[in-house]
Specification:
It comes from Bradyrhizobium vignae. This is HD domain-containing protein. By secondary structure, the chain is α/β, with parallel strands linked by helices. It folds into 2 domains: 12-125, Response regulator (Rossmann fold, 3-Layer(aba) Sandwich), CATH 3.40.50.2300; 131-361, Orthogonal Bundle (Hypothetical protein af1432), CATH 1.10.3210.10. It is built from 16 helices and 6 strands. It has helices at 24-30, 64-74, 93-102, 114-124, 133-157, 166-182, 185-192, 198-217, 221-233, 243-246, 254-260, 263-274, 279-287, 308-323, 334-342, 350-361, and strands at residues 2-3, 12-17, 35-40, 54-58, 84-88, 106-109. Helix 3 (93-102) links the parallel strand 5 (84-88) and strand 6 (106-109). Helix 7 runs antiparallel to helix 8 (198-217), helix 9 (221-233) crosses helix 13 and helix 15 packs antiparallel against helix 16. The longest helix has 25 residues, at 133-157.
């Protein structure tokens, strides 16, 4: 095992490589953001060090031996709570899918681009060496609790006239971002998936996917915060729709569907009347069911009339709905859900949808 000199950045990274040069170019790039230890695939420890920030895997995915060794090492729970970045020989779909099957939480492809790699590391890998699994669990629970507190005010108190303020959301956003950054999207979904109230669970799913997508894209922190707020509150209007309709086990009648479709406008009106909410949040609340081809609701917007933050939220909203268990159906598999969204063609921003693929298919 070889280790670099300790840099200013306070991360510990484990680089597992089967390359003849020990992935020296990649190791050199990683040293800019952390203390790098390089091992062969055979030397990946069964239990990671408590202060390890994350694992970077650079192997030949066409080598059955290397693939099997990595699969065996990552099969259990030991590495599940930390980020796992896999390096691909190219950006082909097959390699990406194989990496996710092995346990990747993110992928990069050759030729190596230092800026892109460092952006991914900074966004997802904890930068505190003392961060351990216990801390991750506590941080995850704090994030879920903070989100749940906002949803309680949104779904239970707002319809009774108790105001939901922008400050309520601000108080939760940092805990939510930290929870997903320092644990994983998979852990977030597992934790919130136990919630018995469908509307709560859906908003928590959408928030998790939105945050993970933003971090995957390398968004600036202030943009991540804006997206977190918008995703958390996107369905606020459902607070004004009878629960019997939202949880109905059978098909909705035309009249019932028309009632449910009022939720974007009702949510927008409630927050606008309350005051203090930024325009992009109101935009998402009102327009997250609009489609690029003009077939959505409530305003039938199309193409350039639909903002980027709405396009992104629409994608994670639909995906979350498909992979959740609903009163009237079992969840679709992640691969089936993604294929269904690809089949929606020009209704969605397909380039943005493909950018979402690693987050979507790596979350199960």
């Amino acid at each position: 095992m070889s280790a670099s000199a300790k840099p200013a950045a306070n991360r510990r990274l484990l680089l597992a490589s089967d390359r003849s040069d020990g992935s020296s170019e990649l190791a050199s790039i990683l040293k800019a953001v952390g203390d790098v230890s390089t091992v062969t695939t055979e030397e990946i420890p069964a239990q990671p060090a408590r202060d390890l920030s994350g694992l970077v895997v650079d192997i030949n995915l066409r080598s059955p031996e290397s693939v099997q060794r990595v699969r065996n090492k990552l099969r259990g729970d030991a590495y599940r709570s930390m980020p796992r970045l896999f390096v691909l020989a190219d950006a082909l779909h097959h390699g990406t899918m194989q990496a996710w099957a092995l346990g990747a939480t993110d992928t990069i492809s050759r030729p190596l681009q230092a800026d892109a790699i460092l952006q991914r590391i900074r966004a997802a890998f904890p930068d505190t060496a003392a961060y351990d699994a216990t801390d991750r669990g506590k941080t995850l629970n704090r994030g879920v609790a903070a989100a749940h507190a906002v949803l309680t005010k949104m779904f239970e108190k707002l319809p009774l006239g108790v105001p939901l303020t922008f400050d309520d959301v601000i108080a939760a956003e940092s805990k939510i971002l930290k929870a997903i950054k320092h644990s994983s999207l998979r852990e977030w979904l597992t934790t919130v998936g136990c919630h018995h109230v469908g509307s709560y669970r859906h908003c928590l799913f959408v928030t998790g996917f939105a945050v993970a997508f933003a971090q995957h894209l390398g968004m600036r922190e202030d943009d991540q915060r804006r997206l977190t707020r918008a995703a958390l509150l996107h369905d606020v209007g459902k607070a004004f729709v009878p629960a019997a309709l939202l949880d109905k086990p059978g098909r909705l009648t035309d009249e019932e569907m028309a009632e449910v479709r009022q939720h974007p406008r009702r949510g927008y009106d409630a927050l606008a009347a309350q005051g203090g909410f930024p325009p992009e949040m109101l935009d998402v609340v009102l327009h997250h069911h609009e489609f690029l081809d003009g077939s959505g609701y409530p305003n039938g917007l199309s193409s350039n009339q639909i903002s980027d933050i709405v396009r992104l939220t629409t994608i994670v909203d639909i995906y979350a709905a498909l992979v959740e268990k609903r009163a009237y159906r079992m969840p679709f598999t992640h691969s089936r859900a993604f294929a269904m969204m690809e089949g929606m063609g020009g209704k969605l921003d397909q380039q943005l949808l493909q950018a979402f693929r690693p987050v979507a298919l790596g979350s199960f």
